[in-house]
Amino acid sequence: MNLLPKVSSEFSSSKYWEDFFKKRTRSFEWYGNYLELCGILHRYMKEKDDILVIGCGNSDLSSQIYSAGFKKLTNIDISKTVIKQMTNRHADKQEMKWMEMDVTKMGFDDGHYSVVLDKGTLDAMMSDDSCDVTIDSMFAEIDRVLRTGGRYICITLAQDHVIRKILEYFPPNNYLVRIHKVRVWTSTAEQTTEMPVFAFVLTKFMKLPSKIIEVCFDDSTKPTRVESESEAIEMVKSQQYYAMLKNQLSNNEASSDVPAIQLFTNQVHQARYTMHVVDLKDHHPAQKFGIFIIPQGREMEWLFTSVVGRLQVAKSARFMRLVFVALNRNHKYVDMQAIQDELSTKVMELSADWLRLETSYASHLASNYSQIMVAGLTSVINEPSDEFRVLIIGLGGGTLSLYLLHCFPHCHVTAVELDPEIATVAQEWFGLSNPTFEGRLQINVGDGFEFVRNLAMENQDSAILFDMVAIDANCNDPSQSLICPPQVFISDVFLTSVIEVLKENGTCGLFLNVLCRDPSTKTGVIKSLKEFFPQIYKAECHEDVNEVMLCF
């Protein structure tokens, strides 16, 4: 069930946005980098597409898209200086074009492009709402150069006058409108001014029987069709309003002037949940963050409706931050577990920086040894867009697999995990069930040693070969001098099997996460590896006692 916060009228005022932009120190970085946008871009762009980037500026986005395999790329900007700089900077990318051109007067043939990409250009041109004629010319030119079935992908902060202009022009002109929310990570210093970034994907049709407007704020769910432009605007504003409240709570205490947060469903116009946040930083709390679900029938008691009453409960519970959740009597609830499942995403977003829980980001590798393994890929592939296959023994939480699948669009991962529960958690809770990974990820539950042995025997009759085999497993026995990997993964039998499943091009390798405090045992590990791999590179982890051995 999609829960939406109640909207404040503040987002219709220009003053709010003026204050927002004054507080921001960066410009187009607000709109996300390639790693943050690639999920949207790869969904709506194909390598065969003719792509036009308007208002390209000096962003690295076009270069990164090109390196990911999108070669038919043309960039335009009104600045002659920018075009000259970018032409010189990317002279090695011979198929990519840079042209000085006004987006309102483009010199391209009708229907020349299948994708027009706009990262912040519309927002820059609509810095206020007094330029309707210019924007109409821009939209008309985009419509002219787009072929039928083409997509105008507009990355925007969706200020009130911007979203209204988009929805005023495109739906009546036979464009299917789909609105995504982009996950952009800001620096700690700017989290108090963080606002959501949206990707408007506008698909051109010859003729639509009626207006189609869809919203998809969570890529794990199907797009929701809305009835009108005003409903779409309201849903976008709800995300902005919720972000404003999170900004207010992010680094500061939840004071008494923090408004209640009401969450609605799409179907009902009465709040399903009402939430109040109370902080107790000065009362030596025992726990960091908690949620108190008020028992049904007691939500009108003084203890829960008043600031003083909630403060008393919070002091008794002893949490640094306590979120009170009231259930609306006009809604039906299955049970407490269903309520927790429904609320989990929203309430966890209310935790402040000083008590933030760890979260798995697809484009971030927390462990130093995983970073070293990915760095070792430079010996295996030439470009991020190359197609390659990786076998990972020891899936764990799936962070390495997730990173490879997210950042390398043609990487195929086969992962093996001994513990079925861990494999399930990695899939269901750490992003590996993302439908965009379908066909590129295979998870096997079982013994990694036996899996590689069986695969090596099968390869006598087939050609399932890998560019990289990564071992990230431990023996779970602290009495052993070699903790990672288990001794069996250094045996001649296993290493022989690894050779059988690696491609024979001289650049493929075995990467091992090694945890060993005994120098003699470590020497023995290296000696065993040298029997099979002529080149061994060793890198120490700065934060841990682990080492990574890259064997080629």
UniProtKB/TrEMBL annotation:
GO terms, molecular function: S-adenosylmethionine-dependent methyltransferase activity
Domain spans labelled Methyltransferase type: 53-154
Pfam family, one: Methyltransf_11
Keywords (A to Z) from UniProt: Methyltransferase, Multifunctional enzyme, Transferase
GO terms of biological process kind: methylation
CDD domains reported in the protein's UniProt record: AdoMet_MTases
Source taxon at top rank: Eukaryota
InterPro entries given in the database record: Lys/N-term_MeTrsfase_sf, Methyltransf_11, SAM-dependent_MTases_sf
Family listed: Belongs to the methyltransferase superfamily.
Protein name listed in UniProt: eEF1A lysine and N-terminal methyltransferase
Organism: Ciona savignyi
Upper classification of the organism: Eukaryota, Metazoa, Chordata, Tunicata, Ascidiacea
